[in-house]
Design goal:
With 365 residues, this protein is of the alpha+beta class. Helices cover 42% and strands 16% of the residues. It has two domains: 2-153, 2-Layer Sandwich (BirA Bifunctional Protein, domain 2), CATH 3.30.930.30; 171-280, no CATH class. The strands form two sheets. Strands 1-3-5-4-2 form a five-stranded antiparallel β-sheet, sandwiched between helices. Strands 6-7-8 form a three-stranded antiparallel β-sheet. The radius of gyration is 31 Å and the shape is globular. Residues 18-27, 339-365 have a biased composition (Basic and acidic residues). Residues 26-155 form the MobA/VirD2-like nuclease domain. Residues 1-27, 322-365 are annotated as: Disordered.
Length: 365
C-alpha cells in the first residue's frame, strides 16, 4: 500500500518550499493538498528550522552541511482520503522522532498532483532541545518497519517485500548459493534469526536475552558504543561448519542484523505482545478461578491461556449473576406475598370493562 524512500538535503529551506509551495508544471496548481507539523508550524517551518540551527550555532556552513533528512511516503492509487494519507505521514514522523529520542522538528506535506498520493516528510537535522544532530543507523530499515506497522493499523495491506530484504550478498556468495554450496554468512544469518525467534517466543524482549540465545547457538556478539554509552553497532563471530573462525560486522549481513534493526525489531514485538494482552483482557486476573490459571511462558500458549481466562470470567460472572438473582428473587417473592395479603380492591379499583395495561406514555403496542 505504501512505499518509502529516505534521503538527506543540504538545504532545509528548499526541501520545505518544494513540499509546501511546489506547483505542477502542467497545471501550475499547488501540489500540496494537506500539511501537518511536529514541534513546528508547517506554514512557517523554514524559519523555525533556521532559528534552531542558529540557536545551537549549527548554521555556519549553510549549503555545505546536511540540514534536513527527507522521507518520501508513496501510496498506491487514489482510493484513499488524502487527509488520512497526511495522518499516516504524521504518525510515521512522530514514531521516528520518538525512536530518535524526541526533540526533532518535522513537517509532512501531502501531494495530490500525480496518480498516487504521496507525502514529503522533512526533518530538521538539529534537535531543538539539545542541539545534537539527527543520526539514525539503519534509517531505511527502521522507516520501513514503522511505515508497515502504520499501514496495517489503518487497515490497508502491506506491500510484500522479497525474502532477501535486509540482507547483503556479494557476487562471490551469490555464485556459491547458485551452486548450492555452503555460505558461512547464510549460516550466521540463520543462527541470528533463530536467536531472535527464541527471544520473541520467550516473551522477554530484551537485548540481553537475545545475546544469551546467540551464545547458545555458538555466536558471539560484540558491541560498539557512542559517547552516550548507547549501543550503535554490532559485529559477530562464530566457528563455521568447516571449523573456521568467522568475524564480520553486522552491516555485511544486512540492515536487519545491525544494532538498530535488532533493537527496533524486539521493541516492535514487545508492543505487539502488549497490545495482544490488552485485547485479550488478561492484564489483570479475576480473583476467582482465573487467578489459579498458570501464566504462559511462551507465545505458543498465549491463545490457549486467553481462552481459559475468558471462560473463567464468564463462569464467575454467571455464578455471581445467578446468586444475585436468586437472592433478589427470594426477597421480591416475600415482598410480593406480603403486599398481596395487605392489598384490597379499594387500593386499585377497576372500572367495568377497563383493561389493565402497563403505562407506555399514552401509547399501546
Amino acid at each position: 500500500m505504501a512505499q518509502t524512500k529516505v534521503a538527506s538535503s543540504r538545504s532545509a529551506t528548499a526541501s520545505i518550499k518544494y513540499g509546501r509551495d511546489g506547483k505542477d508544471k502542467d497545471t501550475q496548481e499547488k501540489k500540496c493538498i494537506a500539511m501537518s507539523g511536529i514541534n513546528c508550524d508547517p506554514s512557517n517551518a523554514e524559519y523555525e528550522f533556521r532559528v534552531v540551527r542558529k540557536a545551537f550555532n549549527k548554521a555556519k556552513d549553510e549549503g555545505k552541511d546536511i540540514q534536513a533528512h527527507l522521507i518520501e511516503q508513496s501510496f498506491k492509487g487514489r482510493d484513499i482520503d488524502p487527509f488520512e494519507v497526511n495522518q499516516m505521514g504524521y504518525e510515521l514522523a512522530e514514531r521516528l522522532n520518538e525512536a530518535l529520542g524526541g526533540g526533532f522538528q518535522a513537517v509532512v506535506y501531502t501531494h495530490g498532483n500525480t496518480d498516487n498520493y504521496h507525502n514529503h516528510i522533512v526533518f530538521n537535522a538539529v534537535n531543538l532541545e539539545d542541539g545534537h544532530k539527527y543520526h539514525c543507523y539503519q534509517e531505511k530499515n527502521i522507516v520501513e518497519r514503522i511505515n508497515d506497522a502504520i499501514v496495517r493499523e489503518h487497515g490497508y495491506p502491506v506491500i510484500e517485500k522479497s525474502k532477501e530484504r535486509g540482507t547483503s550478498v556479494t557476487i562471490k556468495e551469490q555464485k556459491l548459493k547458485d551452486k548450492g554450496e555452503y555460505v558461512w554468512k547464510d549460516d550466521l544469518r540463520d543462527r541470528i534469526d533463530k536467536a531472535f525467534e527464541k527471544t520473541k517466543d520467550s516473551l522477554h524482549f530484551d537485548l540481553e536475552r537475545f545475546k544469551a540465545h546467540l551464545t547458545d547457538l555458538g555466536v558471539n556478539i560484540r558491541e560498539r558504543f557512542n559517547q552516550k554509552q548507547q549501543i550503535t553497532r554490532f559485529s559477530y563471530d562464530f566457528i563455521d561448519q568447516d571449523g573456521k573462525n568467522r568475524v564480520t560486522r553486522a552491516k555485511n549481513l544486512g540492515v536487519d542484523y545491525g544494532a538498530e534493526g535488532i533493537k527496533y525489531g524486539l521493541e516492535q514485538e514487545r508492543k505487539s505482545y502488549e497490545q495482544f494482552k490488552r485485547q485479550s483482557g488478561f492484564t489483570s486476573l479475576p480473583a476467582g478461578r482465573a487467578a489459579n490459571i498458570e501464566v504462559p511462558e511462551s507465545r505458543d500458549r498465549i491463545q490457549q491461556y486467553a481462552r481459559q481466562v475468558l471462560d473463567a470470567r464468564i463462569r464467575d460472572a454467571g455464578d455471581e449473576t445467578l446468586q444475585r438473582d436468586t437472592q433478589t428473587g427470594d426477597a421480591h417473592g416475600h415482598q410480593r406475598k406480603s403486599n398481596t395479603q395487605d392489598r384490597t380492591s379499594e387500593d386499585h379499583p377497576t372500572q367495568p370493562g377497563q383493561d389493565r395495561r402497563h403505562d407506555r406514555g399514552g401509547f399501546e403496542r
